[in-house]
Batch of 2 targets.
Target 1
Amino acid sequence: MRQLMALVLLATSASFIGAVRDGNVAEVRQMLAQGADPNAPEGGNNWTPLLHAIHKNQIGSVAALLDGHADPNRAVNSMTPLMMAAGYGYTPIVRLLLARGADPRLRDLDGFTAVDYAILGMTDLDRFTFFSCGDDTVRVLLAANAPRTIQRNSRRWGSLKGCASLSLLR
């Protein structure tokens, strides 16, 4: 009986993450109402559902998870949801996270903030933003009182890319 319950729980969590990643907002809301944990780490990256939704640029899932009490500041491997969204250049998700309590002043273990992530970009094969400038995202973060001081590597790489938002930073 325990094995059967474990299989049911595994299938439920897998379908929950699937719904989150697919942007199936109705199913995400239904599963949250049935007790799905919006903060439970899942998958090979051990990401929270919120990180899965951001990774797939599913703003509807992000909103549903936040409505279901997902923690907008819960870090995985020291990267917060706001840092991930900023690195991908998902400005609408950055705005939503900030409106729902994401802290733009948090730093990862290397001292990088969401502003650093916006300037540096991501090297994810699904969304490679390493050669882009997240200037719009930087402006949104600064309007939310994000630190204006960035890491030296961020300044160097942003300068090489010609990021206009560097003029707003120290």
Note: DSSP finds nine helices and two strands in the chain.
Target 2
Amino acid sequence: MTARLLLGLVAGVVLLAGCSGDPTPSSTASATPSHATASTDSDPEGIATTADLVAPLTGACYRLTTAELTRPTNNREPVPCGSSHTSRTIYVGQLTQVANGRPASVDSTDVQRQLARTCPAKLAAYVGGSRTARELSRIHVVWFSPTVDEGDRGANWFRCDVVAFARAESLMPLTGSLEGVLDRPGALDTYGLCGTAAPGTSGFVRVACSRRHSWRAFSTLALRGGTTYPGMKAVRGAGDTTCKDRARARASNALKFSYGWEWPTAEQWSAGQHYGYCWAPG
């Protein structure tokens, strides 16, 4: 079984009020899954059937919990999309189970890389919006594939599901289709990333902006660097001035304003998050 990464989106934070005071770094844990794998179960009597080898359908809806998003398998049955649900399948593809000319199991690194490339790209095409809008949203993609046993018996499908986080531990009920949602005016007022307090403080909890909040992530800042993490000092200093300038530009009083710069951890960097967040009250 391959290791599954959790992309924790809360890293170090520099908070400043106006232009005075020393930066106060802080960290907290509020992980958001970057991906998962799942499948259906076989016959409860233990007798192999072909039902668990059938690919799921694009457009199917499910009632998933956040705990299920990081498990390697999932036996949920789809529910009517007109009823309460928390995930929707936006793409069903076929696994390439060959690596270096040899067969590869569904949990191999090469096969999992295929899902890690494909599903985020399918999400971007599905929800639309700019890269920044997608980075600022609470909308994410999770992916699911057959069990090793099902793969050995011929199942070669995978599915990509869209989900939206209300809080770190709960998903938003999905109503209607999220197709093209981030192209709509005001979409981030519902699906954007907000906080219940200043980032890095004890009362801070990440929430969707449709929930009660007092701070908002209003911009992202791409950071330079390759596969090797530049180091906390480098990423901390890389965005502070830029975030301050951006916060000043949107503040009603350019001489007195608050902002926060949040940088990625080494773990987040290795998982692909090469950007940080600029925060402000709002």
Note: The longest strand covers residues 157-167.
